[in-house]
Amino acid sequence: PIGLIWDSTNYSCGYDAFFTVLYNIWIRAPGEWSAHLRSTSNLMTQLSALLAEVSQELLTFENARDNVRRMMHAVNPHQFPYGVLGTSIDKLVGALFHVNRTHARGQRKCNTC
Fold it and tell me: Domain of life here (predicted)?
């Protein structure tokens, strides 16, 4: 499967993981998945168009990632920072899919306390 090259200056782990999975699902039926993605949010509409450019080799996957990341950072620089701070994957997916309700919960637990 196609994947992304990690940006070690502006930690891109969350974006790389999610976009790699999404692309490899999308590429199996681009027309169908583009329609689904466009129906979720403006960001997913943009991402869908960028995935099409990646598949046609008009744009690198890294440039597509960086374009979406730039849009997300412009809207919420605290939640989608540059640098070594990283981005929470649940915030990333929530923003992309415009999730307004809880679908899953996470809890951190210290095994030594």
Answer: Eukaryota
Tokens encoding 38 = 């466009």
Tens digits of per-residue pLDDT, 20-39?
999 999 999 999 999 988 88
Q: Would you list the DSSP string of 12-68?
A: -HHHHHHHHHHHHHHTTSHHHHHHHHHTT-HHHHHHHHHHHHHHTTSS-HHHHHHHH
Taking only the tens place, the pLDDT of each residue in 65-113 is 999 999 999 999 999 999 998 888 889 998 998 755 555 666 777 777 7
Measured between alpha carbons, how far is 74 from 13 in angstroms, rounded to an integer?
Answer: 19
**pLDDT tens digits, 101-110:** 555 666 777 7
> Would you list the domain boundaries of the chain?
13-97
Listed in sequence order, the residues at least 6 apart from 97 whose beta carbon sits closer than 8 Å to its beta carbon are: 40, 41, 44
